[in-house]
Amino acid sequence: MARPSIVPIALTLDDRTGYTLWAPPWEEDGEEWQAFLGSTDEDAENGPVARVHLFPSVSALAAFCRVNTDHDLADHPVWPVVTGLGPADLTPDEDHRYDLDGVYDIVAEAPDRWAVDELAAVLDIVGRLADCCDTSDDEDDDEDDEDDSTFESVADLVARPEVAALGLGVDAFVGRDGEESWSRLGTAVDELWEDVLEELDEHLDWTGAGTVTVAAYPSAAEEAEARSALSRGDDDEDDEDDDIEMVDTAAARGVARPAGGAPSAVPADAAAGGTSTIRGASRLSASPTAVAAAQEFWEAVGILPVELVVPEGAGLTLRCYVEDRARFLGRDGEVFLFATPAELARFCAGDEPHDLTEIASWPEVADTDTLPLPADQDRYDLTELADVLGEVADGAGGLVQHRSLLQPVEGARDLAEYAGLTRVEGLLAPGAPLGQAVTRAEAEPTASLRAEDAAVLVGAWDEVVTEVGTALVFRD
Fold first, then answer.
1. Residue 228 and residue 234: Cα distance in Å, rounded?
2. CA–CA gap between residue 146 and residue 430 (Å, rounded)
3. Where are the domains of the chain?
4. Cβ neighbours, 10 Å, residue 112
5. How far, in Å, CA of 387 to CA of 280, rounded?
6. Element (H or E) spanning 327, and its range?
7. Residue 415, burial from CB neighbour count under 10 angstroms (0-12, 13-18, 19+)
8. What number of CA atoms fall less than 13 Å from residue 426's CA on the CB side?
9. How many Å separate Cα 220 from the centre of its chain?
């Protein structure tokens, strides 16, 4: 299963942002657990109440972690490492910032991939918070108690099929049926979201475990401006090659520098889905501000930067779609990969022929100063899926979701289509074991991968990766 880790997150609610830590599912003593940084208090009227500690800044969070062990993450396997981390290490990335205030605005928008991904992330973390803070199962059964759970509205919302469809991405909300599904999702949010926030409110500790007052929290606008100013300062001080660098994949996957934390720990099989998902171990590090700014240009020209991680290394290229068929920066079925965004940009400004020169917007690409920085959804780590399938096959069955196949398979399919890799297309065909697993991932993304299934898939995926590698050319 995935290695134990702790991740810093930020929650925005009632126009204030708080920082805390989340421990994604990990296994201990034969059970799977997940938790947030928090503790359980005994309330004379309501019994035990689990609360997540929130802090007004990452500095306050870091200071608490250095000296305090009276919380539910103190026994986490990597907590000793967290105690030595500073504010920079405990600053959440953009993927782990959850704006609960912005949910109404999201469902009011057209369902583009950013809106769908953001809403999916917010509802996922809300479900996990509810699972970890729900102590109703710990109390003695009371026949006169009509409430089975403290979080009925949360359970009602996350059980809606439209919420499950968020895991399929924006494609689930395309066309008439998709538009109707998005509309039903908006209606569900309108009906339930205030109740959801009310249920969460009692369990969010805005005093930093008694270390601060609510007045210490800046408004959401002030917090965003402070982050923006810090980002601008970093950009002024560093060169582009310092801001955007390739990092070691093994270090990115390890727990030597975990980020994050935990409230009342509960077995993850009682939590959302009882499973965890894989995130690609990207080797590219760039500030979220830089990536977001770059995406505006690349989306406009219809040619997107892509990162690929294969056993031979990691590299950047470009991809677009012509009549729904993938086309990469390359020639004669070979895909050109570059070590850094700057090297890829220099190639694009040159005059070497390749298969993207005939795209109408290519002159804009050749002339731009905007670095090719890939968004998360355009990063494909083909090696991590191989590792995880191997772990599941070795006995970690039930801890990884089928959806983990979708993003790496998308990258492999596109590469096979462009390079004419018929063997890859055969391995991913609907009748092949790997193709069947992908089909199930599309229909039931949260279904768990079984160890016996992974044992069959691992060999097929290794062959896919080997075949894909024959089409990649690393350029100096």
1. 10
2. 47
3. 7-268, 275-476
4. 12
5. 11
6. strand 325-328
7. buried
8. 6
9. 22
Q: Is the pLDDT of residue 218 over 90?
A: no
Distance CA 146, CA 64 (A): 39
Q: How far apart are CA 98 and CA 10, in angstroms?
A: 6
Q: Which of 57, 166, 215 is nearest to 446 (CA)?
A: 166
Overall size of the chain counted in residues: 476
The model's pLDDT over 293-342, given as tens digits with 9 standing for 90+, comes to 888 899 999 999 999 999 989 999 999 999 889 999 999 999 999 999 99
Whole-number Å distance between alpha carbons of 202 and 56: 18
Give pTM, 2 decimals: 0.53
Query: How far is residue 228's CA from residue 251's CA, in Å, rounded to a whole number?
Result: 28
Q: Tokens 């981390």 map to which residue?
A: 85
Q: Who contacts 105 (Cβ-Cβ below 8 Å, separation ≥6)? A: none
CA atoms of 62 and 370, how far apart (whole Å) = 35
Considering only CA atoms, which of 81, 120, 128 is closest in space to residue 265? Answer: 128
Beta strands at 313-322 and 325-328: parallel, antiparallel or unpaired:
antiparallel
User: What does R_g of the chain's alpha carbons equal in angstroms?
Assistant: 23
Question: What CA–CA distance (Å, rounded) separates 386 from 374?
Answer: 22
Helices (H), 245-356: 249-253, 288-301, 341-349
Which backbone phi and psi does 268 adopt, to 5 degrees? -70, -20
